[in-house]
Amino acid sequence: MHVADGVLSVSVAVGTTIAAVGLIAYSLKGIKEEEVPKISLLTGAFFVSSLINIPIGPTSVHPLLGGFLGLVLGRRAPLGIFIGLILQATLFQHGGLSTLGANTLLMSLPALFVYWLSTKLYKKKPFLKGFLAGFTAICGGVLLLMLLLLFSDQRYSEGTFSVINILLFAYLPLALLEGVLTGFSVKYLDAARPSIFEKGVR
Fold it and tell me: ∠ CA 35-78-4 to the nearest 5 degrees?
C-alpha cells in the first residue's frame, strides 16, 4: 500500500504530510522508556513484512500488520509505522519521500482505529478480535488510499479496469489472509503472553 513519488497531487502530498506530523506528535506524547523495545521489535516486523510486495499501478499489495500493530502498540503504532516507512523509502526506494506523510496516514489511521475498537469489542474472543483487526486495517487503508487517489486525479477511477477497481480486487484476498493470520497470532499471544498487549486492550 506504499504510494510512490509523483502519484499524488502537490496539495494532497502537502496536506497529508502536515496531518502525519500531527499524528506522530500524538503518538510520541507521554512515551516511556520501557515501551521502546516493544516499539522497536514491531517496527522491525513491519519493515520486513512490508518489503514483500507486488506492484499494482501507483501502489503495491503486501502484508501490512497494521491490525497487529494497533493491538500491540496502541497509540504508539504510528511511530513504528513511520520509522519503518522512512527506512524502506531511503534504503530500498519502496514508497516515496514526498508521499511519506500519505503512506504514514494510510497505515496508521486504521491501526489506531483497530486499537480503539479492540477496547470496546470482543475482549473474550481473541481470535475474532485478531481477525477483525487484520481485516479492518487492510480495508481501512484501501478506502483511505482510494480517497487520496480520487482527490489527486479523477483518471484513477475511470474505466472497468481502473486503478481503484484493481485495488479493490487485489486487496480483498490479502485482507482475509491477514485477518486469519492476525487472529491466530492474537489468540496464541493472549494465552502465552497477554502482557504484550496494551493495558485495556484485552
Answer: 140
Which uninterrupted H or E stretch holds 191?
Answer: helix 163-192
The domain limits of the chain are: 10-196
Distance between CA atoms of residues 101 and 110, nearest Å: 15
Place of cell 517496527: 43
Dist. CA 15–CA 20, nearest whole Å: 9
**Cβ atoms of residues 201 and 71 within 8 Å:** yes
pTM of the predicted structure, to 2 decimals: 0.88
Q: How far apart are CA 75 and CA 69, in angstroms?
A: 9
- Residue labelled with grid coordinates 487492510: 138
pLDDT band, very low/low/confident/very high, at 158 (cuts 50, 70, 90): confident
- By the 10 Å C-beta count (0-12 exposed, 13-18 middle, 19+ buried), 169 is classed as exposed
The 10 Å Cβ neighbour count of residue 6 is 11
What is the three-class DSSP state of 125? coil
Across the chain, mean pLDDT equals 86
- CATH architecture classification, 10-196: Orthogonal Bundle (1.10)
Cell of 16: 497529508
pLDDT digits (tens, 9 = 90+) for 106-139: 999 999 999 988 877 656 788 988 999 999 999 9
- Number of neighbouring beta carbons within 10 Å of residue 33: 6
